[in-house]
Specification:
Blueprint: H1 11-40, H2 45-72, H3 82-90, E1 97-105, E2 111-118, H4 125-140, E3 144-150
Parallel strand pairs: 2-3
Antiparallel strand pairs: 1-2
Helix pairs in contact: 1-2
Length: 166
């Protein structure tokens, strides 16, 4: 029961919860199968019970495996919509463009973000960065934010400064 609270937000807690639930299911299945075998002499109940328990455990842990693989591949966590994060960043005062946005899980409970924000106007960037970090944490549960503020854009094709940026 101790693992129920955090299992929705922590992959490790969910794994521990499923492991303990599987142990309980296994114990219950063995007890029931043993009682049926003693009462009826049907020896085939034991392997059938084992197969049923194995299938239930496989089905219950399949999503855990998928999330573990996604974390290993540094994919965007399922509870974060990158388009919403990008829209939030693009809508910030003075931001004209967002690029190189990356969001990934650092651990089972921590999410990181890096992005480049184009802001041609010189303002109090320290206060803005603090505010963005707090908002990303509150709205999207992103804990570690690294933002690079750029004043000018360079044309990636030929290395020329865009007109009016110098």
């Amino acid at each position: 029961m101790l693992f129920i609270r955090g299992r929705d937000h922590d992959l490790n807690l969910r794994g521990a919860y499923l492991h303990m639930a599987a142990d309980a299911l296994l114990s219950l299945g063995v007890a029931i199968a043993g009682a049926v075998i003693l009462w009826t002499d049907w020896a085939w109940v034991d392997p059938l019970t084992s197969l049923i328990i194995a299938v239930v455990i496989l089905l219950a842990t399949w999503s855990l495996l998928g999330e573990s693989i996604q974390m290993a591949m540094q994919a965007v966590p399922a509870n974060i919509q990158p388009q919403e994060v990008e829209s939030y960043l693009a809508g910030l005062p003075g931001v004209t463009q967002v690029h190189d946005l990356h969001i990934w899980a650092m651990s089972t409970t921590e999410v990181a973000l890096t992005a480049h924000l184009v802001r041609p106007q010189h303002t109090n960037d320290d206060e803005l960065l603090r505010s963005i970090g707090e908002c990303l944490h509150e709205r999207f549960h992103i804990d570690h934010t690294t933002l690079q503020i750029e004043r000018n854009l360079m044309d990636a094709d030929c290395g020329q400064w865009e007109e009016g940026t110098l």
